[in-house]
Design a protein that fits this description.
The complex is a heterodimer of chains A (421) and B (310). Chain A is 67% helix and 7% strand. Chain A is α/β, with parallel strands linked by helices and 421 residues long. Chain A folds into 2 domains: 267 residues, no CATH class; 123 residues, D-Maltodextrin-Binding Protein, domain 2 (3-Layer(aba) Sandwich). In chain A, strands 2-1-3-4 form a 4-stranded mixed beta sheet. In chain A, strands 5-6 form a two-stranded antiparallel sheet. In chain A, strand 5 and strand 6 form a beta hairpin. In chain A, helix 2 packs parallel to helix 11. The radius of gyration of chain A is 31 Å and the shape is elongated. The longest helix of chain B is centred in the middle third of the chain and has 16 residues. Chain B folds into 2 domains: 214 residues, P-loop containing nucleotide triphosphate hydrolases (Rossmann fold, 3-Layer(aba) Sandwich), CATH 3.40.50; 91 residues, Alpha-Beta Plaits (2-Layer Sandwich). In chain B, helix 6 links the parallel strand 7 and strand 8. Helices cover 35% and strands 29% of the residues of chain B. Classes of the chains: A alpha/beta (421), B alpha/beta (310). Chains A and B meet through helix 1, helix 9 and helix 10 of A and strand 6 and helix 3 of B.
């Protein structure tokens, strides 16, 4: 099946696609965007506002001095992230005070006002006044601190040992540990989650893009009647094989380019990711992803070539591609929903299911440890799917490619399978 | 020796018989005309010869051997419906078409330049195909058909859309190919070209071969009772005249079919008696067009009778 004719077709397809504007733009744009996003993230981390002025107001001098002692001791005060000032006033006075400070708050001369009423000693409810009332990073910074002071005050006059007090002061601290078979238990940040999203999106975009490109090129050949000349030199099976291989190689090259930032981050320390974004995967995941993608792409491209052969023009084709598109879109959403809990049964099944495994498995591998036989099984299933699909797609392609005229119905297409061609 | 034989080819599409038990033989080193009206089954027959369609039954035999995939490399095919990759450069297009025939770039590049110069396209060789005029695209396609030096050349309506200068050039090249002992199959509905170029013809109508053989023999056979006449005056008296079977007006010339072959002198006498200004009186002449019109679209029995008759 593989001969000089197929090779010539592969070469032409590869050249045509690699040097098309759409391919170059998309292929360069995506890693550019990834780097841009990483850059912005890093920039945001490094340029967080310093010297944010925060007024801490309580209703009793006692409480005020307790907060003053604790807050001025805290690292936020010492490293200058926040500048605290402390006052005592009751609710009525606070209202007037707020009136007076309104302009400063709006102009952001004053970052915010935290009001700790005396009732906070019972319900720990504090109030925050600022231009934007939902400042998650500030809440995260200060809630432990406020809690600690309130606890200290609350237990001040009660007889409790220091240990008891220390325990009460502690908040709950989640640390994520990834459990996998081979490497023991490791601490990890959000990095792998980000990576799982990234893999899912890249596979999805590439499948759609290369698939559409192949379909368009088959439609062009059919519409222009080039196919008749080509078929006087190569057999339809050779032409289809060449087209599929050419497009699949294009897809692999594209994916390799897209993954290059990840590979670069894995193998060098030039780029310093923030601690929360550090990821840990081994190179095997990338290699496996490319291999599985290659096999899956062969099948998908075969289907897209088949669709191109059925239809005469892009308008007809766009409605007819729905069934194949679903095979890409559904696994994409399964992969996305898996991010919450990678151990869902649906994720496990989808990561082995024909078509779906291409998108779902890399994300699953990135998030949890996957037994080796699952990885092998997914590949074997994909190969079997290809072997089953290729003759059918090939037959429809052979019949469709020389057919012109009105858009065929699906029933007719199924009849083509019985034709002698 | 026939170089190519088509034996009992049949192809049916959705119960419509496109080609019905067609057989013909293409002799060595000749130009063979496959002629017929639009939709007669020419293209389907050619597609089966090329292996683009699998026939329902029948064989294509090359020098006694049933053709296989290797035949494709020996053939140059110019389909009626032309098509090239629009975004490809002219020269790359030529190389690609040679490559799928198994010829490498360095084997054909001198010849490619030669043909491009001959067709006045050399300075456009780096242009994209889509930037060329339709006529020029057609010339590129023709070069692509013959660049790999095929033994068999199948041309489906090669002259459509070409201006007279390029038509002549194409004709010259076809004749050159013939001198090189290539087998050329010309499919056309333009009888003029077929008559001027072909040595042998097969006429196809409604999927059936209704007439085949050497052009000279066919013409001789059909022309015995025929006179082709150029004149001034009124010949309406000839309609319904006892010696005339049929009159066909072709504009400049009129074809007259007599009832008996020995009546030509009688006809000439008649014309002079009636003071018709005879400019050209050509006994035993018939154009392929006349034969074609006579036979095309008629039912089988009529054709059998007619062919047997003449």
């Amino acid at each position: 099946m593989f001969n000089f004719r197929v090779l010539a077709v592969v070469k032409r397809e590869l050249m045509e696609k690699l040097f098309s504007k759409a391919f170059i733009t998309m292929t360069l744009l995506v890693p550019g965007l990834i780097f841009l996003m990483l850059g912005i993230q890093a920039l945001l981390y490094s340029s967080e506002k310093k010297n944010l002025r925060i007024d801490i107001i309580t209703e009793s001098d006692n409480l005020t001095s307790a907060f003053r002692n604790d807050f001025l001791e805290s690292e936020y005060s010492k490293n200058g992230k926040y500048i605290f000032s402390f006052q005592t006033m009751n609710k009525e006075e606070l209202k007037k005070y707020l009136e007076g400070k309104k302009k400063d708050l709006i102009d952001e001369k004053l970052g915010g006002i935290i009001f700790i009423p005396s009732t906070a000693m019972k319900d720990k409810k504090v109030e925050y006044y600022a231009k934007s009332s939902q400042n998650i990073s500030l809440f995260k910074d200060l809630d432990g601190l406020i809690n600690k002071t309130l606890i200290d005050q609350y237990f001040n006059n009660k007889t409790l040992s220091k240990e008891e007090l220390d325990f009460a002061r502690l908040g709950v601290d989640f640390t994520g540990f990834k459990v996998s078979e081979e490497e023991g238990i490791k601490e990890e940040g959000y990095g792998n989650l980000v990576l799982a999203y990234l893999f899912t999106f890249l596979l999805y975009i590439s499948l759609l893009m290369i698939g559409q490109m192949t379909m368009q090129s088959v439609i062009e050949e059919k519409g222009n009647r080039i196919v008749e000349v080509i078929l006087s030199s190569v057999s339809p099976t050779e032409l289809m094989t060449g087209k599929i291989l050419g497009a699949t190689l294009t897809g692999i090259i594209q994916m390799a380019i897209w993954l290059s930032p990840v590979i670069l981050l894995m193998s060098t320390t030039i780029f310093v990711l923030p601690k929360e974004l550090l990821f840990s995967i081994n190179g095997g995941v990338i290699v496996y992803m490319l291999i599985n993608f290659f096999i899956g792409l062969l099948t998908f491209i075969g289907l897209f070539a088949m669709l191109g052969a059925i239809f005469d023009n892009p308008q007809d084709a766009s409605s007819g591609t729905m069934p194949v598109m679903m095979l890409i879109i559904i696994p994409f959403f399964i992969a996305l929903s898996m991010m919450e809990n990678p151990n869902r049964p649906v994720a496990e099944i989808a990561s082995l299911f024909p078509f779906a495994s291409i998108i779902v498995m890399p994300a699953r591998m990135t998030l949890v440890g996957v037994p080796f036989w699952h990885l092998l099984l997914a590949v074997v299933i994909n190969i079997l799917t290809f072997v089953a699909i290729f003759p059918i797609a090939g037959k429809i392609y052979r019949v469709g490619i020389l057919r012109t005229g009105k858009k065929p119905k699906w029933g007719e297409v199924i009849k083509w399978l019985k034709y002698k061609y | 020796m026939y170089s190519l034989e088509v034996r009992n080819l049949t192809k049916t599409f959705n119960k419509i018989v496109a080609v019905d038990n067609a057989s013909f033989e293409v002799p060595d080193g000749s130009i063979f005309g496959l002629i017929g009206r639009n939709g007669a089954g020419k293209t389907t027959t050619i597609r089966m010869m090329m292996g683009i369609y699998l026939p329902d039954s029948g064989d294509v035999v090359l020098k006694g051997v049933k053709i296989g995939p290797e035949f494709k490399s020996k053939v140059g095919y110019l389909p009626e419906e032309r098509g090239l990759y629009k975004k490809m450069k002219v020269i790359d297009t030529l190389y690609y078409f040679a490559e799928i025939k198994g010829k490498r770039k360095n084997e054909v590049h001198r010849k490619a330049d030669e043909y491009l110069k001959r067709f006045d396209l050399y300075d456009r060789r780096l242009s994209k195909v889509e930037d060329l005029s339709k006529g020029n695209q057609q010339k590129v396609q023709f070069i692509a058909t013959i660049l790999h030096d095929p033994d068999f050349i199948i041309l489906d309506e090669p002259f459509s859309g070409l201006d007279p200068v390029n038509t002549n050039l194409l004709k010259d090249i076809i004749l050159e190919m013939k001198q090189k002992r290539k087998v050329i199959i010309l499919s056309t509905h333009l009888m003029d070209y077929a008559e001027k170029l072909c040595d042998h013809v097969a006429m196809i109508d409604h999927g059936k071969i209704i007439l085949k053989g050497s052009l000279n023999e066919i013409k001789q056979k059909f022309s015995q009772k025929n006179v082709s006449l150029t004149f001034d005056g009124d010949i309406s008296f000839l309609y319904n005249h006892p010696i005339v079977e049929k009159i066909e007006n072709f504009g400049n010339t009129t074809g007259i079919r007599l009832k008996e072959a020995n009546q030509t002198q009688e006809l000439l006498k008649l014309l002079i008696e009636k003071n018709i200004n005879v400019k050209k009186f050509d006994a035993n002449d018939i154009s392929l067009q006349e034969i074609f019109i006579e036979l095309a679209g008629k039912d089988e029995d009529f054709i059998k009778k007619e062919v047997a008759n003449v």
